[in-house]
Amino acid sequence: MTMQETIDHFIDYLMTQKGRSQNTGESYRHDLERCAAFFTASGINTWQEVDQYAVINVIAEMKREDCASTTINRTISSLRQLYRYLLRRHEVQVNPMDYIDLEEVATRKAPVTLSQQEIEQLFAIPDTTTVNGLRDRTLLELMYGTGMLVSELINLKRSQVHFDLQILQLQDNPRHQRIVPLGKIAKEWLARYLRATAGDSSDYVFLNARGGQMTRQGVWKNFKEIVRKSGLSKKITLQTLRHTFTADLLKNGASWQAVQTLLGRETGRESFESYIRFNTQELVTIYRRCHPRA
């Protein structure tokens, strides 16, 4: 069933079974058709594929268009009613609106992202003549160049790095493998760091000063110091690099659906279905076309 057909069935249900007025039905239709058009333009073609990140993206677009908070809240309410209807009919298994707060979204600011000049300013801080500085620069390049989570980076092993294929092969669990394209610049820094630490016995890529696996707290502590030294005035967190990765891909033409797959986000379907929609080569091609440092 297409998104438009679902809307038609939902509006018919509201008016014939719930007794809603013609005006109320048309209001719901207007909101949902606007969302459906946005989702379709982003590569999402069914209501089952929509997740909370896609909804947040719609809301961000409405804010960029200077839509009133009341309009945004009404759209959220329309989506919430639609997904309650779909859940009752067992047409979806996950409700993306469970993660959307009405008042919070109405006042939420767009995520902080960095320009290419700010990226260069930040990345120039680590002293790459030292092993630890080389490690920190490599971490920055991988966070921005791949969109990986900190937990994925600190658990990355040398055996998961495939320079010949220019990919990282992540294994979240025995049944879920994630392929991450490795851009040219990130690859160069990672290769340089691995050469510098070739004598270490650990299979983990990123190590602390004592030769043990880095922790999330260690990465965050080093990152805060790098941000402080950079002199950048924005409120920058580790998530900022992931937001910038996402924004740059979307800005350069990647579909929201492809970006979700690159980020490792699921949309309520089994993980293998994501690889049916985008096989590894397709993802690599999209990444190389759209990421500034690929």
Structural class based on helices, strands and sheet pairing: mainly alpha
* H/E series: HHHHHHHHEEEHHHHHH
Largest sheet: 3 strands, antiparallel
Strand content: 5-15%
Q: Which blocks of ≥5 consecutive residues have pLDDT under 50? A: 103-107, 266-277
What is the molecular shape? elongated
Radius of gyration: 22 Å
Mean pLDDT: 85
Say how many strands there are.
Answer: 3
Main sheet: strand order: 1-2-3
> What is the terminal-to-terminal distance?
38 Å
Helical content band: 55-70%
Continuous helix count: 14
Keywords:
single chain; about 290 residues; mainly alpha; three-stranded antiparallel sheet; 14 helices; 3 strands
Helix-strand blueprint:
Layout: H1 3-16, H2 22-41, H3 52-64, H4 69-88, H5 102-107, H6 116-123, H7 131-146, H8 150-154, E1 161-162, E2 167-173, E3 176-181, H9 184-196, H10 216-230, H11 238-251, H12 256-263, H13 271-277, H14 280-290
Helix pairs in contact: 1-2, 2-4, 7-9, 7-11
Model description:
This protein has 294 residues and is mostly helical. The chain has helices spanning 3-16, 22-41, 52-64, 69-88, 102-107, 116-123, 131-146, 150-154, 184-196, 216-230, 238-251, 256-263, 271-277, 280-290, and strands spanning 161-162, 167-173, 176-181. Strand 2 and strand 3 form a beta hairpin. Helix 1 (3-16) packs antiparallel against helix 2 (22-41), helix 7 (131-146) packs antiparallel against helix 9 and helix 7 (131-146) packs across helix 11 (238-251). The radius of gyration is 22 Å and the shape is elongated. Mean pLDDT is 85; it is low at 103-107 and 266-277.
